[in-house]
Known about the structure:
It is a single chain. By secondary structure, the protein is of the alpha+beta class. The chain contains 3 helices and 4 strands; from the N terminus they run βαββαβα. It has helices spanning 20-37, 57-70, 95-105, and strands at 2-9, 41-45, 48-53, 78-83. The longest helix has 18 residues, at 20-37. The chain is globular.
Amino acid sequence: MTLSIVIHRPENSSAADPAPAEAEAMRLAVRDAVWEIADAHWTMGSDAILVSTDLSPDYMLSHFRRALARRGFDQTGLLLVTSVGPRVAWSDLPQEAEGWLRDVLA
């Protein structure tokens, strides 16, 4: 499996920022869409998720955009999907996250 990072910030500088409840609904739509494509993922915070899947970043981005559109959102906010190369370094992650990363990258 490939490890990808999904960064989603509903707020962006090119459009009016959504209300807090709308921003949280957008985050939930993306998190739910992650579950549709990958059981193996770890949420790093409200704006970032590590996802273990063989789907391409382009496909994943399209999937998330469709998931947001299905819930009535015209804008995605900042949405970035990138694959992580074979070498990854990290610092100060919770122990369960380090274990998850080791398993995924093994």
